[in-house]
Amino acid sequence: MDTAFTEEQNEIRRTVRDLLARRCRPDEVKAAVRTPEGYDTALWNALARQLGLPGLALPERYGGTGCGTVELALAFEEAGRTLLPSPLLPTVALAAPLLVRLGSADQRARLLPRLASGELTAALAVPGSALSSALGLTAPGPGPGWAGGGRAGGVQAAYRTAGGGAGWRLYGEVDQVLGGHSAGLLLVAAHTGGFTRSRTLLFLVDGAADGLVRTRRTALDETRPVARAQLRDVKAIRLGGNDGERADTRDGERAGEPGGDMAHELASAGPRVAALLAAEAVGAADGALARTVEYVKVREQFGRPIGSFQAVRHRLADVYVQVQAARSAAYYAAWAADGPKPLDQDGEAATAGGTALGQALEALGSAAAEAVQLHGGVGFTWEHEAHLYFKRAAGDELLFGPVHRLRACAADRAALFGPGEGARGEEREAEHGRGHERRDERRDEREGEVGAVRWPGRAA
């Protein structure tokens, strides 16, 4: 196995790094996050038109470059190094791969070229605040709770056959949608089929649709904006369906309710997303470390640079080792995501992705903490650039972690400690159900005995 990067891959890294070094400095990052879009639209257009970054991993027939996860991970690493605020993560890592894999031919032909050119941005709306659970990063598999439950909550979908034309309508609210306030297209996970036959489907919603209300929320990490999306009788198109979807009544299904459950498809996308997030976190950790090293070379105490003190060197050396180990894990996870079985939820890619993301988030947390402390008094001021990295570390831990759950889920998939927590949870749930059945049986027996026996003192 050759672990060296090709000349093309190194060129991708160098080109993205050079552009971001010129146009994404800390002051420019702070200015960009305060715009209505939450990012520098001119820089996004440059990344799209000059470098083709949004279409880097999209098929060539849709205007993309046709590269793999490794090339995309290198771009994400450089974006993380400067804490680039952009629609890159929600559009390229979350929404576009689902559209490529699950979209109909018409949907792919109509939307993917616009995504590849950067003209259209997209976001994935998963009800609740459990994106990591939906992607299978902190849970062994999709359960009923991550999308808001089956009986109520989350987003509900109903197929309407009258009153304004046949079609899907969505109702509900999504609290945390990455990049959702400015995305031109939303991929919304919603329940349909009622409680007894509940299934999760993905729907395409136009960002300008009637009844869609989006509000940008205050976030700890301003470089990763989130929004609340409220759907009030919003028209939607099923991902993989079409505008004129007809009733499908086979197997007793009602009009417009297909049989597939997209919850497993979302979980299958998790390993690739984890690899890209890990690469981005490694880039951020390396950026924080590099800035700290430069500072300790010029900051003097007792007549000498503080970087010359052995205690400071040891602390930075520990962070360096963590970052290098996390980088190796992220590269391996990206390679595994393009392996022979990238969609196996219990395979090598799923285990490598969760492990790499946990290690990268831990390295980023350590690098950000040392950056704040070793910058001294100025580093503790909220306005200092060290806090951009600190906020990114804390924000990613909240959105995609925590680290111990990422590692526990990866260990569970690899069966490192015998039957996983997911298997034990299923066993407990099954035993709980059997307990209910036994109680019902005993109650029925008692009721039968009462009806058959004449108690003393009672009239016949």
Automatic annotation (TrEMBL):
Which Pfam family, any one, appears in the UniProt record? Acyl-CoA_dh_N
Q: Which InterPro entries match?
A: Acyl-CoA_Oxase/DH_mid-dom_sf (IPR046373), AcylCo_DH-like_C (IPR036250), AcylCo_DH/oxidase_C (IPR009075), AcylCoA_DH/ox_N (IPR013786), AcylCoA_DH/ox_N_sf (IPR037069), AcylCoA_DH/oxidase_NM_dom_sf (IPR009100)
Please list the cofactors this protein needs: FAD
Q: Which domain of life is it from?
A: Bacteria
The ranges of region (Disordered) come to 417-460
Bias (Basic and acidic residues):
423-449
Q: Which UniProt keywords apply?
A: FAD, Flavoprotein, Oxidoreductase
- Start and end residues of each Acyl-CoA dehydrogenase/oxidase C-terminal domain: 276-411
Residue ranges occupied by any Acyl-CoA dehydrogenase/oxidase N-terminal domain in the UniProt entry: 6-119
Report the family membership.
Answer: Belongs to the acyl-CoA dehydrogenase family.
Q: Which PANTHER family match?
A: ACYL-COA DEHYDROGENASE, ACYL-COA DEHYDROGENASE FADE28
Q: What is this protein called?
A: Acyl-CoA dehydrogenase family protein
